[in-house]
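Give me structure tokens for this 134-residue protein.
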Amino acid sequence: MARTSKSQIPVLLYRYEGPARNIGFTFSPLYLNEDTSKVRQEDMLFIYDEDFEHIRPAISRVFPLTDPWSGEIHASFDPCWNNPIMNETWDTIVADLKQVNSPDPDMQAFLDKLIVWIRKVLDHADGIEVTGNL
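Here you go.
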């Protein structure tokens, strides 16, 4: 499913072929309970910007969202900062991703692997935070 970088964060690839350290997005389990154990790097997922472009529309459509910690409204997806997205909202995103019927088997495999990762994380997390490094 993924290649492991030096930082031990698994990388999900579709078409990206650039340098190992480049612009992209880290998906991390989100826990609202402070007593929950710290998120390990191997529990995260990194997607390069070039590949993220294929899933960005499904994520962007769910905004505006309320930050679960501050109550602040995030009007749109922020590629430069944290985007905490709660479990229920991921159901909508996954439904949108499942609607994509790509004739490209590599694209379909990329989306299927992402959906499996999202569902696995949401079995035990309150949501997933998507953080851009732009």
